Amino acid sequence: MKRSKRNITPNESYRVGPVSYPRFSFGKFGSHYLKREFYFDVHPPLGKMLVGLSGYLAGYNGSFEFKSGEKYPEEVNYTFMRVFNAAFGVVCVPLAYYTARELGFRRATIWLVSLMHLMARVVGLIIIPVLVYVFSFYLHFLVLENSGPGDAQMSSLFQANLRGTEVGKDSPLEIALGSRVTLKNMGYGGGLLHSHIQTYPEGSTQQQVTCYHHKDANNDWFIYPSRREPEYDPSAPLKFVGDGDVIRLIHGQTGRNLHSHAISAPITKSHYEVSCYGNVTIGDDKDHWLVEVVDDVASKDRSKIRTLTTAFRLRHPVLGCYLRAGNVNLPQWGFKQIETTCVKENKPSDVYTHWNVESHFNDRLPPGDPGSYKSPFLKDFIHLNVAMMTSNNALVPDPDKQDDLASKFWQWPILNVGLRMCSWDDNTIKYYLLGNPFVYWGSTFSLGIFGLLVIWYLVRWQRGYNELSQADINHIHYSGLYPVIGWILHYLPFIVMGRVTYVHHYYPALYYAILTFGFCVDWLTQTMDVKSRWVIYSLLYAIIVGMFVHFRVLVFGIEGSSQQWGHLDWLSGWRIAN
């Protein structure tokens, strides 16, 4: 009798639970690459491009949204995608092996370092990483040619060159009185000039003015003549706006004038506050703004402002200050939007005082094609990186909310905390991010041991002992000190930064701590006989492998109730069973 064969789906060879952290974010980013939609994230693009490449090679079309807790559909070959990306982590192990060889460790120590390096990443020197970093952004811009959710973080000219964008589409080229416009700040990470009905809690208590990346009707402004000129007449001949003209900007939704006065800004106290005040008929000279053209990528003619291509500044004639939007975020009362002020210093090179018209609406003017001019790659590269850094710094802990995923920098070297990567429901396959305890504690302990070794030899050297040869000193320098410096350089940023942090932020520093552990073992066993050294190394190998076997359920997935694994909660902060 012939047996029937059941078709094996791609995901049946690997136990896959629902979408979990951080796959819901990186899977979503990979989908953007497959759909070629521009998006914004605080991290560099190369890793996420590799996720997109794995999906492309697996035949995935980018339609799955990777929402947390959802099941993977059959058409998503998740097994291939996971193996593809995990392979880069596997490659780190032989890289650690050859790094240890170059540092002059004995072969037994080399294998110890290779075994310990399961989760860490390798970092090269300087030039090659910089080239790879810049080239990854070049590919990022090349692949993401369609308009997407991250458009607003980029310059207006960059957005205008994306397929499917509305920026600059059918916008008249030259700006006239009566035009409805949106104004984009040209500083790195700049947003759109914005206002809403909420008022400042202090200062003038007038209507707030901010910069905001989200596109809505609160970004619309009408260009009107100054109060010293006749009122705007829609039936009168068109009058175009150019360098040296004094105008008013009237908020489209509330009808109030863009205004400034000699009151300190809410956050940057050395600047003047900018608000919305009055209406079309009620106001004063403090509603006026003088246009100063800085540059135009399309023309040397400064007699007119052009959509997208003209960079200009807005000077307050009464106060002599310039409209500016830096990278300072307002508190929660300002919805964390960008503080917009009037800066007293006249610095023409300050790009945060530069503005351009992003969208332009005027029924009396013919549509143009201002998006035919390209934005330079280097400028886009810097712009996106500053926007990434600004958004990254804005990811500060909220004191009013409890974040069970976040952790502090001091908890990582001592493995005081782990990370639940998905729902802890009994019906869910659960994964817990926890390092090998011996690897963490051993590598952290070795940092202190290395410091004591250096102090020991320095004290003995000062007392006249010359027990170290030049070769020994070089070995300590290159094989011991360099890894410690690498650990400091990769750990220190997370100590000083104010953003929310997670356990995986320690992985680059962990790589160097592991190399330091290898050096300490290598140095302290160098005077032993071969048999004694192999006993020590065999014991270390056994402990590392034994730890992995003991905690293997965290890697392969916890099924059913987590309470049965309470014996794995060695520390109260691990929260595996409760």
From TrEMBL:
Its EC number is 2.4.1.109. It is found in: Endoplasmic reticulum membrane. SUPFAM superfamilies: MIR domain (SSF82109). It catalyses: a di-trans,poly-cis-dolichyl beta-D-mannosyl phosphate + L-seryl-[protein] = 3-O-(alpha-D-mannosyl)-L-seryl-[protein] + a di-trans,poly-cis-dolichyl phosphate + H(+); a di-trans,poly-cis-dolichyl beta-D-mannosyl phosphate + L-threonyl-[protein] = 3-O-(alpha-D-mannosyl)-L-threonyl-[protein] + a di-trans,poly-cis-dolichyl phosphate + H(+). Transfers mannose from Dol-P-mannose to Ser or Thr residues on proteins. Pathway: Protein modification; protein glycosylation. Residues 172-226, 238-294, 302-360 form the MIR domain. This is Dolichyl-phosphate-mannose--protein mannosyltransferase. It comes from Aspergillus oryzae (Yellow koji mold). It is an enzyme of class 2 (transferase).
